[in-house]
Amino acid sequence: MTIHVVDHPLVHHKLSLIRDRKTPGSLFRALIEEAGLILATEATRTLPTESVVVETPLERTGTQRLRSLDPVLVPVLRAGLGLLPPFLQLLPTAKVGHLGLYRDHDSLVPVPYYRNFPPLLEARPVFILDPMLATGGSASEAVRQLKGAGAISLTLVALLAAPEGLERLQGDHPDLTIWVGAVDRQLNEKGYILPGLGDAGDRLFGTA
Question: Which of 165, 150, 135, 127 is nearest to 39 (CA)?
Answer without folding.
Answer: 127
